[in-house]
Every structure is written in structure tokens, then in C-alpha cells.
Automatic annotation (TrEMBL):
The chain crosses the membrane at residues 20-39, 59-78, 99-124, 139-159, 166-186, 215-233. Keywords: Membrane, Transmembrane, Transmembrane helix. This is ABC-2 family transporter protein. It holds the Pfam family ABC2_membrane_4. It comes from Clostridium tepidiprofundi DSM 19306. It comes from the Bacteria.
Length: 243
């Protein structure tokens, strides 16, 4: 039943325009970061690391959380039309399967976006003629970015299930971006999902995380994901979805 739920979610996306968003937003963020890097090459002397600070800042701090919010709102859009939630919730599919299948599909999409972003980063670096090897840390940044993204996916998916409006969850995500930035600045980034993304992807600092920091990062990411997922599933089981 779970596999069928995932297949159903993929079918909804197959001929949609969400794929354009998944491609265009990383390209825009890479372009903005690359332009900023190009005009500040006199100051940004650390090659790949300097390029990463520019492209990942636009991408991870703003575009990726918004992209996640768009995907979550989009994957719930059909259910909010013609009271389809009522049909789904009276079907033999469990609330856990409904939520988890959406979570898995969006996670796969975001992982694909992360890989696409990494490829763009490599291409841009070569176009700028960067002579050193691409940092090995980039793999860690991408992997941690996926883990942090999972917490945001769980949060946004719960919001999109409950809120009929397509734009409202995206607006909430935008507010969370600035809250997360503030949490990062006051050194409390481990306690907010969007701040975890900043820490994990090394957007504002490329200093390597200690073993203790890495453990705390992954533990907090898992705990946030479990918390938001549990709350969303509980709401699906006990409350009527607004249709």
C-alpha cells in the first residue's frame, strides 16, 4: 500500500510544471551568486570556498527553503480541490502512509535538486578557471543540507496539509528564513530547522564542524523531522482537514 501511495504521488507530478521550478530556482541562485563572486574576485581569494560562500548563500538561505515550501504546497494542491481530502481520508490508506509517501517524494526531489546544484557549482567554478581541486567538504555540505531540508519538508508538509491556500505556507516559510537567520546569528542555530540548513551547508562559515557539532546537528535534524511528522500525522488522524 505504501508503494502504491508513492506511485500515486509521482503520477501527480509527472506532467506538472513543478519540474521547471526545480530547475530554474537553482540556476537563478547560482547565477546571482556567480555574478556577486565575479565582481568581488579581488576580495574573494579562496577560490572554490569563496565561490561556495556566494552561490550557497543565495541558494541555501533563500531559494532552497522557498523551493521546499512550493513543492509541499504543490503536492497537497490536488487534495484541496473538490474536497478530495475527504475522499482520501475515508480510503483504506492510513494517515501515516499518506504523509510519509508525500515526505519521501519531496525528499527525493530535493535530493535531486541538491545534486543538480552541486553540478552547477562545479561547472561555474571551471568556467571561472579555478585551478585547485573542488573541496572534499562539498559532499558533506550537500549531505547535511539534505538532512536539514528533511526537517523543513516535514514542517512545510504539515502546514500545506492543514492550509488550503497555496501561498500561505510559502509566506510562512519566508518568515522562518529570517527567524532562522536570526537564530544563527545569536549562536542558537541548532534549535531551528532553517538555521540547521545554514549550519549544515556551510553557507555563512566554511569552518568544519567538530565531531560533537556533527552529532548534535544530525540528532537535532532527526528529532525535528520526527516531531513535525508526528504532529502532522496526528492531526490527519484526529482533525478534519480544511477543504
Amino acid at each position: 500500500m505504501f508503494k502504491k501511495s508513492i506511485s500515486a504521488e509521482w503520477l501527480k507530478l509527472r506532467h506538472s510544471r513543478i519540474w521547471l521550478v526545480l530547475i530554474i530556482l537553482p540556476i537563478i541562485s547560482i547565477s546571482l551568486g556567480s555574478i556577486n563572486y565575479y565582481f568581488n574576485r579581488g576580495v574573494l581569494q579562496n577560490e572554490w570556498y569563496s565561490l561556495w560562500t556566494q552561490v550557497s548563500l543565495f541558494y541555501g538561505e533563500f531559494f532552497l527553503p522557498i523551493l521546499i515550501a512550493i513543492c509541499c504546497a504543490f503536492i497537497c494542491k490536488l487534495e484541496h480541490v473538490n474536497k478530495n481530502w475527504n475522499i482520501i481520508m475515508t480510503s483504506p490508506i492510513s494517515a501515516r502512509n499518506i504523509f510519509t509517501s508525500k515526505l519521501v517524494v519531496i525528499t527525493i526531489l530535493i535530493f535531486m535538486v541538491q545534486v543538480f546544484f552541486l553540478i552547477l557549482y562545479f561547472i561555474v567554478g571551471k568556467l571561472f578557471g579555478l585551478s585547485t581541486q573542488i573541496p572534499s567538504e562539498t559532499i558533506g555540505w550537500i549531505i547535511r543540507g539534505c538532512f536539514a531540508s528533511l526537517t523543513i519538508i516535514a514542517l512545510q508538509l504539515g502546514l500545506s496539509i492543514r492550509i488550503k491556500s497555496f501561498a500561505a505556507p510559502i509566506g510562512i516559510s519566508l518568515c522562518c528564513i529570517f527567524i532562522g537567520l536570526g537564530m544563527y546569528i545569536i549562536k542558537s542555530g541548532m534549535f531551528f530547522p532553517h538555521s540547521l540548513l545554514s549550519i549544515g551547508m556551510g553557507m555563512l562559515s566554511q569552518e568544519g564542524l567538530s565531531i560533537a557539532d556533527n552529532i548534535q546537528f544530525f540528532v537535532m535534524s532527526i528529532l525535528f523531522t520526527i516531531l513535525f511528522s508526528s504532529l502532522a500525522i496526528h492531526r490527519l488522524k484526529t482533525a478534519d482537514v480544511t477543504t
